[in-house]
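Is this the right way to post structure tokens for a design question? Let me know if I should format differently. Anyway, here goes:
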């Protein structure tokens, strides 16, 4: 297991480009594979999670050419996928296994999907239950809640589903199954999660209607191939935004970042904490809002975070916890129970790691309370196999009194293989 030791820096400066958005990259392969014609994708994220999705579709007979810059996905049409000759390994990727399960529920062949030791602990009932209601036969460990899942799909019936959690993975799995259902399938969620599927379905010509916190998809409509440009991932940019905010004398321009309003909770939260963050040159690319983000070091203050902003910032909480640890006063995070079922339990992981650096953190079932400190201490912390924990703690190390060693950092390749070279670049090392 690799570790890294990071020493404090005096400032974070420069201009960077962030790699492609992970959520949009997954969806471009999935929709490209079942569309008619050749879909091209520029800016595709070559992280482990997206490579798992690519491999899964190749195993179902989809030709995907990659010249190192652009992907060309040779779509097979709505009913052209073929049975994989082996178990489909989704690696560490919750998005792959859950969205794929929705798609496989509509196929008239048999599939088994599984993943690594972390993914095999994450709850699948949230997608299995509605997909079974639509007519798929799905079996899995723990009464169908844990992977491996065995899926026998076929003709589906449309349902109206009220999801108890705000989850784009649940919503998107049902939307994909809905393409194969007889009639109109709708999903409602407590508050709106990321809407990349809604946007991309529309781009490919699906019949989709959105309403407040919900979506309806019509079955049986063929999709048409598209040329897609994937913007930079705001979830990856978040580590650099926090790095520039908490490090003195910093100014960082982050180019070409997706700023879809269902993803910008992190910016709203950090601005409320007193962060100097400006969105420049806002534009639309492939149906998604994009901007350059200018960040300057700021004195942050503690705030209360709860409610509808939480799903809009769900993957950024580890980075937000680091900002809170450096803020003046107390930050409370509530309504964030979902953090307990990510790659690791992100509430406990961040509480334990920040504790080791001398920060007072109190956990509660759906969140935590963090009391900011003037100076983070040094020490040794654990990624817990979770890319976002590893990267957050690496950012914390930039301003600690002494060096911090982060253990087990291979997981960073899940979503951001070039994270450490970029961190070196902006640190002037
Ligand atoms: O649909 C997606 O692309 C994602 C949805 C979110 O998960 P949930 O749907 O479980 O909240 C997020 O945490 C994940 O990184 C990507
Ligand atoms: C939770 C995440 O991804 P997934 O659910 O796709 O594993 C993440 O990237 O933070």
């Amino acid at each position: 297991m690799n570790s890294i030791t990071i020493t404090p820096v005096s400032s974070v400066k420069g201009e960077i480009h962030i790699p492609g958005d992970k959520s949009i990259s997954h969806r471009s392969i999935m929709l490209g594979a079942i569309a008619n014609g050749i879909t091209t994708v520029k800016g595709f994220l070559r992280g482990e999670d997206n490579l798992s999705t690519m491999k899964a579709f190749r195993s179902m007979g989809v030709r995907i050419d990659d010249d190192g810059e652009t992907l060309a996905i040779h779509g097979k049409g709505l009913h052209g996928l073929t049975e994989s000759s082996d178990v489909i390994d989704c690696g560490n990727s919750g998005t792959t296994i859950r969205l794929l399960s929705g798609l496989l529920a509509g196929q008239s062949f048999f599939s088994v999907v599984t993943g690594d030791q972390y993914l095999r602990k994450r709850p699948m009932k949230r997608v299995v239950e509605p997909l079974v209601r639509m007519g798929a036969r799905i079996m899995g460990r723990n009464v169908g809640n844990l992977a491996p899942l065995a899926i026998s799909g076929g003709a589906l019936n449309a349902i109206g589903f009220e999801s108890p959690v705000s989850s784009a993975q649940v919503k998107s799995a049902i939307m994909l199954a809905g393409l194969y259902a007889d009639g109109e399938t709708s999903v409602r969620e407590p508050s709106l999660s990321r809407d990349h599927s809604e946007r991309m379905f529309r781009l490919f010509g699906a019949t989709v209607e959105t309403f407040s916190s919900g979506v309806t998809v019509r079955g049986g409509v063929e999709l048409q191939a598209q040329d897609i440009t994937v913007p930079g991932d705001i979830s990856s940019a978040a580590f650099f935004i926090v790095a520039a905010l908490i490090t003195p004398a910093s100014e960082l321009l982050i180019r070409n970042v997706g700023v879809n309003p269902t993803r910008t909770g992190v910016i709203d939260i950090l601005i409320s904490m007193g962060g100097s963050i400006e969105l420049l040159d806002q534009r639309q690319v492939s149906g998604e809002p994009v901007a350059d983000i200018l960040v300057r070091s700021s004195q942050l203050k503690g705030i209360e975070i709860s409610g509808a902003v939480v799903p809009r910032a769900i993957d950024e909480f580890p980075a937000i916890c680091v900002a809170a640890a450096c803020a003046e006063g107390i930050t409370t995070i509530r309504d964030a129970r979902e953090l307990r079922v990510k790659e690791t339990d992100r509430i406990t992981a961040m509480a334990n790691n920040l504790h080791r650096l001398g920060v007072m953190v109190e956990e509660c079932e759906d969140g935590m309370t963090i009391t900011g400190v003037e100076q983070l201490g040094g020490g040794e912390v654990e990624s817990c196999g979770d890319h976002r924990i590893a990267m957050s703690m690496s950012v914390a190390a930039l301003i600690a009194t002494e060096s911090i060693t982060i253990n087990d950092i291979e997981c960073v390749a899940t979503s951001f293989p070039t994270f450490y070279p970029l961190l070196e670049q902006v640190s002037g090392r």
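Format looks fine. Someone answered above. Worth noting: The two ends are 24 Å apart (CA to CA). The chain has a mean pLDDT of 98.
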